[in-house]
Design goal:
With 87 residues, the protein is mainly alpha-helical. Helix content is 83%, strand content 0%.
Length: 87
């Protein structure tokens, strides 16, 4: 199992990648930048939620807890990228 520090780094890496893609999209489509801003806000909100879950104390089954966070990260990242493609 990866360390908590590695999980936090993964969360940061994945969601910052989504944000970078949104910024790149904004450069090409400057007239529709409001839509990308909403995706950036969603990515930041997801980051805050996932980091809060990682920092939870008193979790009974840590392995299952961190696995669910990893799964949620994957689903969130995929969802945000699909929304970006639809823009």
């Amino acid at each position: 199992m990866a360390t908590i520090r590695d999980l936090k780094k993964t969360i940061n890496y994945e969601l910052s990648g989504v944000i970078e893609e949104c910024y790149a999209w904004q450069l090409v489509n400057s007239d529709k930048s409001d839509k990308a801003e909403k995706l950036i806000d969603q990515a930041i909100e997801s980051f805050d939620i996932l980091i809060a879950k990682v920092n939870e104390t008193g979790v009974e089954n840590k392995k299952a807890h961190f696995q669910s966070i990893t799964t949620e990260l994957s689903k969130t990242t995929t969802s945000l990228m699909k929304k970006l493609v639809k823009l």
